[in-house]
Amino acid sequence: MRARARPGIAKAQGPKSPVATPSTSNPEPTLRVTEIFRSIQGESTRAGFPCAFIRLTGCSLRCVWCDTAYAFSGGEEMPVSVAAERVLALGTELVEVTGGEPLEQEAVYPLIERLLERGKTVLLETGGHVPLDRLDPRVVKIVDVKAPGSGMTAANLPENLERLGPRDEIKFVLADRRDFEWALEFVRERELDGRHHVTFSPVWESLSAADLAEWICDSGRPIRLGVQLHKLLWGDVPGR
């Protein structure tokens, strides 16, 4: 998936919760976390709403245009309970679990359950190369289908598209006209835009949003133009 740039200058880190020593007989699962912060949701149909983000570390894909390579490695190891409390302390109704690729960490599932149990709307942004069959149906899944310009088309799992519900979303990040034509045919063949929210988003550095908007209008399909709101507000600045 395209793990987007940190979406905001004014971000609030969760409070540093004390880390309890887990029982040796039943140790608590842990996550490797790159960052936890609050900002404006920059993408998806919920763009513009305040949102708490937890960005997990690690991704086996290497999309050409990935804008959060800093999440490939490093991060902080923390128990699921500590991670959940830091997210909840940020006080938003909307929470996004992202990466990297969040589904590559086993402990993401108990994390999500804790957030759902507290009544949060949980978005899960995934590159689509890990099966979705274990996710709680209450999670709003945002699945990134890899177009040729990503260099990762072979990683797409078509069966994941059959596991999506009416609230779930499909995203295509497009580098050029060739990517657009490929994505449009992909959507047409499967009639995805009749069953789900489908977003076409331009690669920030290589495709004009205005051009993509014109192509979408000419297509006659109910496809949403996705523009990274956080980059319009604060720019593509690493570390923000």
Structural class: alpha/beta
State Rg: 18 Å
Largest sheet: 9 strands, mixed
Q: What is the CATH topology descriptor? A: TIM Barrel
CATH architecture descriptor text: Alpha-Beta Barrel
Number of domains: 1
What fraction of residues sit in β-strands? Answer: 15-25%
Could you tell me the mean pLDDT? 89
User: How far from one another are the termini?
Assistant: 19 Å
Supply the CATH superfamily name: Aldolase class I
Tell me the total number of β-strands. Answer: 9
Q: Number of helical segments? A: 6
| CATH class value | Alpha Beta
Helical content stands at 10-25%
Overall geometry: globular
- Order of strands, main sheet, comes to 3-1-2-4-5-6-7-8-9
Low-confidence segments, ≥5 residues, pLDDT <50?
1-12, 17-23
Q: What is the H/E string?
A: EEEHEHEEHEHEHEH
What does this structure look like?
There is one protein chain. Helix content is 22%, strand content 22%. With 240 residues, it is an alpha/beta fold. It has a single domain (30-234), classed as Aldolase class I (TIM Barrel, Alpha-Beta Barrel). Strands 3-1-2-4-5-6-7-8-9 form a nine-stranded mixed sheet. β4, α2 (108-117) and β5 form a beta-alpha-beta unit. Mean pLDDT is 89; it is low at 1-12 and 17-23.
